Amino acid sequence: MRPAPTPGRYPVRFGMAELLRDADRPNAWMITVDGVAQSHVNLDDPTDLEFDYIRRIADVIDCLGEGPLDALHVGGAACTLPRYVAASRPRSRQLVFDADGELVALIREHLGLKGLKVRVGDGREGVSARYDASADLVVVDAFERGVFAGGLATVEFTNEVARVLRPAGTYLANVSDGPNLPFLRRFLATLATSFPHIALLAEPGVLRGRRFGNVVVAASRIELPVVALTRRAASSPYPARCVAGEDLRELQGKAKPITDAVPMPSPVPPKDVFGVF
Fold first, then answer.
1. pLDDT per residue over 67-122, tens digit each?
2. What does the pLDDT read at residue 36?
3. Which domain holds residue 69?
4. Cβ(40)–Cβ(66) under 8 Å?
5. CA neighbor of 29 nearest in space, from 4, 10, 12
6. Confidence (pLDDT) at 1
7. What value does the mean pLDDT take over residues 243-267?
8. 43, 62, 94, 128: most buried, per Cβ within 10 A?
9. Residue 8: CB partners within 8 Å, gap ≥ 6?
């Protein structure tokens, strides 16, 4: 039997991690790195999702039809979403890539990773090594010190994701942006080079450029479940908007795709915007 998790501070590759006990749930834990919240997991109930953006990613997955999935995750931390998929879709085959080996070791020791396959390494390289049409789902949620991990927002990486996905597969990414959404607009243009169907989920204040925040973007070669997602987003405890079709193309505007040759880093979040309060 694995020992009970030990709250404390632990050095990891990208900073100082802290393992915090949830005061309201007896076996739930928060992981932060340099004060920025990375993951929240409830070991008694993997379907209990604390972070709004994770709930939105899960909503998209829930609307993809029934049955197990072959899923790739770039960015794992405490593996909140892989745990959710394992619980909600038994017999799913999942592979998680995470660049922070020390953080993976910390999670494995204190929170366990039973039944999950996690590889330490560069997520872009990991995806590029996968077979054609081998995945139903690719999820990218990879940040380094609050910034979307380099090389994951480009046309070249997007092409690799499209290659690895099956014809009806779905690409999900969590990005963050602030006023005027310059990074998001170019990220949408990047996805459009490989995927004809795109939708996003975000709080209205973020979409209006009033505050910095997360945006969940879904892309596919087939139509996305926009009606179902719109309904779920509107009924959420923290309501969000689902933007697709002409509204999304208007948001994208004349933005140009991001390439390896001319990269664009995501904006650095304002201090404490994703911290633990």
1. 999 999 999 999 999 999 999 999 999 999 999 999 999 999 999 999 999 999 99
2. 87
3. 44-252
4. no
5. 4
6. 64
7. 95
8. 94
9. 18, 19
Tell me the C-alpha to C-alpha distance, in Å, between residue 163 and each of 96, 131, 221.
18, 8, 11
pLDDT at 3 (0 to 100):
76
Helix segments in the chain, DSSP class H: 52-62, 80-88, 101-110, 123-128, 155-164, 182-191, 204-207, 226-235, 245-252
Residues 248 and 200 sit within 8 Å (Cβ to Cβ): yes
- Is 6 among the domain residues? no
Q: How many domains does the chain fold into?
A: 1
Query: How far apart are the C-alpha atoms of 131 and 121, rounded to whole Å?
Result: 18
> What residues are paired with 219 via a beta bridge?
171, 198
Question: What CATH number does the domain containing 89 carry?
Answer: 3.40.50.150
Q: Quick check: is 266 in a domain?
A: no
Residue 13 lies in a domain: no
202 vs 238, more confident: 202
The whole-angstrom separation of Cα 159 and Cα 141 is 17
The 241-244 sheet, strands edge to edge: 117-120, 93-98, 70-74, 135-140, 165-177, 213-220, 197-202, 241-244
| DSSP code for 239 | -
3 state DSSP class of 39? strand
Whether 36 is in a domain gets the answer no
* Rounded Cα distance, 41 and 28, in Å: 6
